[in-house]
């Protein structure tokens, strides 16, 4: 009597879970990268206009001087959000987690034992949450 071949369902579930997490972290990496660069460029432009208020008054961009108070408030709000969200740190953290899980996916496809993959996957998730979810 032969023993039945073990089902590959746990392997396919684990592969699907790895793929799902990879896609989530890839999307978050892009979102935090965009947020980081958008906020930095915006802050540079806003603060430059606010700082150059007097010089702008006699230039072709003199119309901006009436908007300086609003721009100053916008810069302060954007600075607060940037400090609170910490997009640069999260962008780097999501990139690292995304790369670690991509490496684990390749190892799993290359034949790494399911239990080892599961342990490493749990470790990656735990480390990701500790360093990037704040």
Quick overview of this protein structure:
By secondary structure, this protein is mainly alpha-helical.
Average the pLDDT over all residues and give the rounded result. 88
Number of helical segments?
A: 5
Radius of gyration: 24 Å
Indicate the proportion of strand residues. Answer: under 5%
| Global structural class | mainly alpha
Number of strands: 0
User: Termini separation (Å)?
Assistant: 56 Å
Low-confidence stretches: 1-5
The coarse overall form would be rod-shaped
Provide key terms for this protein.
single chain, 134 residues, mainly alpha, 5 helices, 0% strand
Give structural notes.
- The protein is mainly alpha-helical and 134 residues long.
- The chain has 5 helices and no strands.
- Helix 1 packs antiparallel against helix 3, helix 1 packs antiparallel against helix 4 and helix 4 packs antiparallel against helix 5.
- The relative contact order is 0.14.
SSE topology:
Layout: H1 9-51, H2 53-57, H3 68-85, H4 87-109, H5 114-132
């Amino acid at each position: 009597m032969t023993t039945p071949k073990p089902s590959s369902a746990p392997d396919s579930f684990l592969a699907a879970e790895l793929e799902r997490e990879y896609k989530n972290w890839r999307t978050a990496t892009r979102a935090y990268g965009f947020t980081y660069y958008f906020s930095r460029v915006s802050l540079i432009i806003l603060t430059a206009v606010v700082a150059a208020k007097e010089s702008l008054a006699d230039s072709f961009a003199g119309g901006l001087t009436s908007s300086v108070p609003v721009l100053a408030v916008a810069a302060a709000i954007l600075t607060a959000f940037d400090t609170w969200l910490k997009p640069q740190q999260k962008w780097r953290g999501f990139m690292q987690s995304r790369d670690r899980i991509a490496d684990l996916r390749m190892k799993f496809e290359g034949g790494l034992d399911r239990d080892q993959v599961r342990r490493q996957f749990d470790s990656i998730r735990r480390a990701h949450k500790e360093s990037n979810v704040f």
